[in-house]
Amino acid sequence: MSRVFWLTVCALLLAADSSTLITASADTTAKLWDVATGKEYFTFGFDKQGARGCAFSLGGREVVVTVDPFMGEGSSIRIFRMAPDRSERAC
Q1: What is d(CA 76, CA 68) in angstroms, rounded to the nearest whole number?
Q2: For position 91, what pLDDT does the model report?
Q3: 3-state secondary structure at position 69
Q4: What is the C-alpha to C-alpha distance for residues 82 and 77, in angstroms, rounded to an integer?
Q5: Residue 7: exposed, middle, or buried by beta-carbon count in 10 A (0-12, 13-18, 19+)?
Q6: Both ends of the chain: CA-CA distance in Å?
Q7: What is the CA radius of gyration of the chain?
Q8: Residue 35 contacts by C-beta under 8 Å, 6 or more apart in sequence?
Q9: What's the whole-number average pLDDT of the chain?
């Protein structure tokens, strides 16, 4: 991957089919990456909350991201359903 992160990447996980990587970062984002190309194809943003952990569901259709408080915000677990077609997930 050629992208530069300005804040800490707290977690990363490779999908079961090895085609997608997810990263959780203190820069308040979680990102989906295409492993073959190294390109980012989707960003989840969390206003004022650093993403600390991430996971794919067993079927690979959901993404789970944990976020920590920052600037008075509360902790939470976020669950997102991904579009079945990768082209629909583009940024």
Answers
A1: 7
A2: 42
A3: coil
A4: 16
A5: exposed
A6: 17
A7: 13
A8: 14, 18, 19, 20, 21
A9: 82
pTM of this structure: 0.78
CB atoms within 10 A of CB 22: 22
Are the CB atoms for 86 and 62 separated by under 8 Å? no
The model's pLDDT over 39-81, given as tens digits with 9 standing for 90+, comes to 998 899 888 788 889 999 988 889 999 998 765 667 888 999 8
Assess contact for 25 and 36: CB atoms under 8 A. Answer: no
Task: Give me the residue label for tokens 């939470």.
Answer: 76
**Residue from 10, 49, 48, 45 nearest 30 by CA:** 45
Q: What's the CA gap between 30 and 18, in Å, rounded?
A: 18
Does residue 51 contact residue 36 with C-beta atoms inside 8 Å?
no
CA pair distance 86, 75, nearest whole angstrom: 29
